[in-house]
Amino acid sequence: MTRSNFDLKEEVRAYWSARATTFDHSPAHQIEDRFGMPQWQKLIQTAAGLDTAETMEGLNVLDLACGTGEISRVLCSLGATVTGLDFSEDMLAQARSKLEDARWTPLLCDAEELRSIADGSVDFAITRHLAWTLTNPQAAFAEWHRVLKPGGRLLINDGNWQQGLSLRYSLKRKLAHWLQPEVARSEAEVAADRSIWSQLPFKDGLSSESLTDMLQSAGFTLVQRLDPSPLYAQGMKAWPLAVRLRQSSENRFSLVFVK
Question: Which stretch of DSSP H or E encloses residue 226?
């Protein structure tokens, strides 16, 4: 028997909700203020077509699958009016605690079905580590296109986590393990991760090329390929060397699309 999309979505929701209180402990998700924040600000300004002296004042911005609100913090620091969208109430609770005094509105909503967001109402949208988890990517991309204004931009930060590691990166991982072995995950978490991953459309990996093709089919135009490596190099100087080596995967990508 095949499992329904609804069942998978609820499994995904439960998985992320269970990680909400410890999510920011991960260097892959926490954005450190001294080094990380400036690098993320620069990337987002570039993706939005701004220079580093410009803010996002007056822009209506959508943080898709905002999680604990780390990307929303960056957007708010640039002066944007932000809607942080997530389908996990537990994740949104963590974000609310950080952003209660910011121009930020939480929205409990599925990133694949933006029912409460009007057509052509968003100037800029961003996702981080969302695309590979989508259960219905075609529906998601159509919705993202619908809510963006003509000329509105979409920034996708993600990676091909199933792509084989190069010799260079494999050596970096070995050095990182020698410097500081990773804390092993529980058997239950590993099993849940594998169960979900095996059912996802991008279970065999998400390449920037295939993602671009799908977004172009949804009506987007690719305007920029940005280099995300500064986020995990200069932007992670506050973290130990072993952490930086693990995070500096060449399989990451940042793509900017326009409606």
Answer: strand 221-226
Q: What is the pTM of this model?
A: 0.93
pLDDT, tens digit (0-9, with 9 covering 90-100), for 181-239: 888 878 888 888 888 889 999 999 999 999 999 999 999 999 999 999 999 999 999 99
Give pLDDT tens digits for 105-162: 999 999 999 999 999 999 999 999 999 999 999 999 999 999 999 999 999 999 998 7
Burial class (CB in 10 A: 0-12, 13-18, 19+), 32: middle
Would you kindly state where each structural domain of the chain is located, as residue ranges?
5-164+187-238+252-258
User: Is the CATH number of domain 5-164+187-238+252-258 3.40.190.10?
Assistant: no
Two tokens, residue 104 = 């930020």
